[in-house]
Each structure stands twice: as C-alpha cells, then as structure tokens.
Amino acid sequence: MFNKVLVANRGEIAARIVSTLQDHGIEAYVTASDADSKSEITRKADGVIHLEGYQAIDTYLSIEKIVKKAKTNKIDAIHPGYGFLAENPDFAQKVIDAGMTFIGPTPYQMKSFGDKIEARKLAIKTDTPLIQGTKSEMNDEEIIEKSKEIGFPILIKAAAGGGGRGIRLVNKKEEITEQLQNAKTEAKLAFNDDRVYIEKYIPYARHIEVQVIGRGNGEILHFFERDCTMQRKNQKLIEEAPASIISRNKANEIHETAINLLSEIKYKNAGTVEFLMDLKDHSFYFMEVNARIQVEHPVSEMITGEDLIWRQIQVAAQEDLNLDQKDINYTGHAMEARINAENPYMNFNPSPGKINKIRHPIGAGVRVDSGISDYDEITSFYDPMISKVIVHSPNREATIRKMIHTLDNYIITGVHTTVPFIKNLISEKDFLTNNYHTKYLDSYKTSIPEEIINIARIVAGFSFNRSGENKDRINGKMTSSWKLSALPQGN
Ligand code: ADP
Ligand code: ADP
Ligand code: MG
Description:
Elements: E1 4-7, H1 11-23, E2 27-33, H2 40-44, E3 47-51, H3 63-72, E4 77-79, H4 89-97, E5 101-102, H5 107-114, H6 116-125, H7 140-150, E6 154-162, E7 165-170, H8 176-191, E8 196-200, E9 205-215, E10 220-232, E11 235-241, H9 248-264, E12 268-278, E13 284-290, H10 297-304, H11 308-316, E14 333-340, E15 342-343, E16 349-350, E17 353-354, E18 357-359, E19 366-370, E20 377-378, E21 385-393, H12 396-408, E22 411-413, H13 419-426, H14 429-432, H15 450-460, H16 475-481
Parallel strand pairs: 1-2, 1-4, 2-3, 4-5
Antiparallel strand pairs: 6-7, 6-8, 9-10, 9-12, 10-11, 11-14, 12-13, 14-21, 15-16, 17-20, 18-22, 19-21
Bound molecules: adenosine-5'-diphosphate (2 copies) and magnesium ion.
C-alpha cells in the first residue's frame, strides 16, 4: 500500500478522498491554488502542495507543476478526483513516467473512453445496445447523410465532450448543415477537438448508470445502478440508487451489459457505464463510460456500505480486494442533491461570494460531502459546487421525506444556493410518483418574478439587498418559512 498520496483536486472531492486515505493511515496531501490556500481541506490534509495562481489552467490543470512538485514531495501515488485532470491520459502517462502510480485507468483506457466515437466502436464490438447514429469517424457529408437516414430530431455531440457540454439538438433537416458547423466550432473552443458524432434524439428517457470497479484483469464488479434522470441542461442535479423505475430483472440485464463491455478491455479503476432508457418501450442504450470516480458515487456507497474510493486505491496498489460479486448487496434507497452556489430563480446564475456561516445538516442516514466551512469564499475560478447532501432510508418515499427535512435544516448564508429549488422540486407530485424524464426541467417553471420573491422575503422576515451584500440571507431556513408552494409552479 502507498505511504503518501496526493489528491490533485480541490473542494468536496479532495476532502472526500483525504478522509479515506486518513482512515487507512496513509499520509494525504492535497493541491491548493492561491484561491484555495486557506480552504478547509488544507487544514485537514497532512500536507499541502501549493500551486501558484488562481485560474484552473495555471493550477489544477497544470500537469508540469503538479507532477514536478509531487516528485519533490516524495508522493507515491496521485488521485485525480473528478473533473480537472481526471480524464487526461497525458497526465496519467506523465505521472507514471515520473515513477508514481496514477490512481485511475490506464492511459489507453482513458483515451478509449475520453473519445466517445472510440467508445461507440467498443460498444459495437461487444454487442452493447447503442443509440442509432455514428459508428465510426465521418466527414461532414457523411454526417449529414446519416442524419437524414436516421431521421430528425437528432443530437450532435462532441467526441471529446463531457459534463453535459457540447450537445446540440437539431430538429429538422434544413438546420443540419448550419448546426453541424456551429457544433464543430463550439467543440473546438470547449475541448480543443472539433470532432463530433450524431445520435438519434430520445425525447422521453431515463438516465441509468452502473457503478463498477474493474481490477484490470478482466474481472469487473458492479455496485448496482443509479438513476440520474433529474438533469438541467444535460447536467445531473439529483441522483438516486437504486433505480426504482426498473424491475430487478431489467437492472440485472443492465449490470451484465456494463460488465461485458468493460471486461473486453480489462478495465481498471472505478468507472461508470451510462445508459439512456427510452420510456417508450424501456429499451436501454449505451451512452458513454466515465472512467473515473463520479460526483454521485456516494449514493452507491450508502446503499452498499462500500467505500468506493478505497476500492479504487486498492486496485491501483494491486491489493487483493477480498470481495466477490455475491458479497455486494444493497439495502434501502439513497438520494443525493448537489448544492451549488447558484441562483435558481435567476436562471441559475453563479452566485460567488463569501460564506458567512454554514451549518451542514446532520442526522441518522444523512451524509454531507463538503470542502467548505465558515468564511470560505466561493470564487468564480472553479465550479460552483458547495456540497452534496446524501440521505439513506428504507425506501424511496422515506428517502424523499428525509431529504426534504434535511434540506430544511441546511443553513448557508452569504450566497444564493440551489437548496430552495431542490426542496421545491422534490416535493412535486411528478417526482414523488417517479414520473419524469431527462428533459423534465426544460418545461419546469424556474424563473419566479422578482416582485413575488420580494414579497416572499418580506413575509418571511428577511431583509434583502438585491445587488448588495445580502448579509441576512439564510438559504436553508428561508425555505421553511418561505412557502414556495405559494409561488407559481411548473408543470
Ligand atoms: P458526473 O461525475 O456526475 O458524471 P459530470 O459528468 O458533470 O459529473 O462531471 C464531473 C465534473 O467534471 C464536473 O465538475 C464537470 O464540470 C467536470 N467535467 C466533466 N467532463 C469534463 C470535460 N470534458 N471538460 C471539463 N470538465 C469536465
Ligand atoms: P456527457 O459526457 O456530457 O455526460 P452524455 O452522452 O453522457 O454526455 O449525455 C449527457 C446527457 O444528455 C444524458 O444524461 C441525457 O440526458 C442527454 N442525452 C445524451 N444523449 C442523448 C440522446 N441521444 N437523446 C436524448 N438525450 C440524450
Ligand atoms: Mg455522461
């Protein structure tokens, strides 16, 4: 096992990984940019590697700086978390070349899945059901021809895309030529790679994904599935495990499909195989593999009692897992809500600022993953996630109830958060009855007229300065007295 591991990341995921390392007596180092030099995680870690600068490109994305400083600090292995360099094969290779272990897949596996056209080829090879669309690299004419063949609407997706970005809907054939050029320009800008592919658009679908750990010898263990259907602009907002929309037979079929795909390339590391299930006939299709730990891994940990970060580290250290598929079971139902510093009633605009006070909810079956404490700053240099709230109860209904009152007890002052929006959303009948799809929020009313918000604030007794420093704003508490149900509802 490693003696000293560097977590090349920040925020909640850095805190999450440090805690597992320390559980096992491994010295845990973290990277910290100038913007994060006083963050909570720098106090918890056993050592801090300072990355001069503020922008991600100068700090958490700086391969040279991180590898060099890790070496100087005698680091044995690097955990990349998610985002930043987690899916960068060049980083993984440089870590290996410097004589350290990369806690993740092999650079070859990362390349195969980072390129979604390559991933589709692997899916074809393994007879994995695939959404109708591109099967190999195509030039513009071939893409246009293919889109007419499958019929509109279609999606144009960036081969290097991720995080819900680089996906474009094309409704009719008259738009394809222009949209293709726009998609390519956008992909080039966002991912420095203008290759795109197309898929038939599935309007009413559920997002179901399988959590796995691959040992690198062809053996793949699954940790059941998650339902991440509640999304905004193709980005996950709420995640659950297991997926109660499908039967256990269907779930087993999806697990088998995921295992079959990954064992073909002897996948090593934690990974997720994402599927889209068409609500028309419940057939499911492969979408992509995320070759890293995911944001929503805690819901799988809650239902299985496993520490997936530890399994990931064990695989990287070539330790025996002492674990068979039949020993992995689940109980109850878990749900995660991503809490972002965004104003949900102002088009989810980022809401950076200083956190004056933060009180995470606590209770039986409640877990909060966070890297934020009082007086920490949410800056606009990095993503706006403050924390993740995860709850676990015997069944879905009880889990929703627990999440609602848990969010009621969340106090975050100084910035806007998604807390009131999520509470409102999970109280909707459609959510309670599990009757929604990936595009549900597209037609959900999120913009509440400012006058109504102000009236609600006055009723709730909060003074508020719209453009000012908003010292009195208490997000979590405000929702309990601020009757959101009295406000205009979406459908
Ligand atoms: P999940 O792990 O739940 O699938 P996401 O896919 O949204 O979560 O990605 C996790 C993190 O990685 C997010 O912070 C997201 O912004 C970031 N991310 C994912 N893919 C990319 C990419 N290709 N380029 C930049 N950031 C990415
Ligand atoms: P990313 O790498 O950005 O996560 P994905 O391919 O996983 O991209 O897709 C992200 C989300 O976009 C899915 O969860 C789903 O909601 C939506 N999506 C992707 N492909 C399709 C499709 N063919 N039809 C309808 N929705 C899709
Ligand atoms: Mg995805």
